[in-house]
Amino acid sequence: MNPFKGKQFQQDVIIVAVGYYLRYNLSYREVQEIGSVAKF
After folding, report:
1. Per the domain annotation, does 1 fall within a domain?
2. How many Å apart are CA 20 and CA 23, to the nearest integer?
3. What pTM does this model have?
4. What does 1-40 look like in DSSP terms, one character per residue?
5. What does the UniProt keyword field contain (predicted)?
6. Distance of alpha carbon 2 from alpha carbon 8, whole angstroms
7. How far apart are CA 10 and CA 24, in angstroms?
8. Each residue's pLDDT expressed in tens, for the chain with a length of 40 residues
9. Under 8 Å CB-to-CB from 35, ≥6 apart: which residues?
10. pLDDT for 2
11. Nearest-angstrom CA–CA distance, 39 and 5
12. pLDDT value for 22
C-alpha cells in the first residue's frame, strides 16, 4: 500500500516538508520575532 497515492504533491516533496517541520519547530511568534530582527 502506498500512502502517497492520490496526493497532490510528489512523495519527495512531502518527505522533505515533514523533515523541515520536525527539525525547525517554529511557532508563529518566533517567526514574527525573526522577521522583525531581519527586517522582512
Report:
1. no
2. 5
3. 0.47
4. --TTTT-SS-HHHHHHHHHHHHH----HHHHHHHHHHHT-
5. Plasmid
6. 14
7. 21
8. 777 777 788 888 888 888 888 887 778 888 777 777 766 5
9. none
10. 76
11. 41
12. 83
**pLDDT at residue 13, as a whole number:** 85
Q: Which residue has the cell 504533491?
A: 9
Asked, for residue 2, whether it belongs to a domain, the answer is no
For residue 14, how many other CB atoms are within 10 A of its CB? 14
Domain span holding position 35? 7-40
- Domains held by the chain: number: 1
**What length does the chain have?**
40
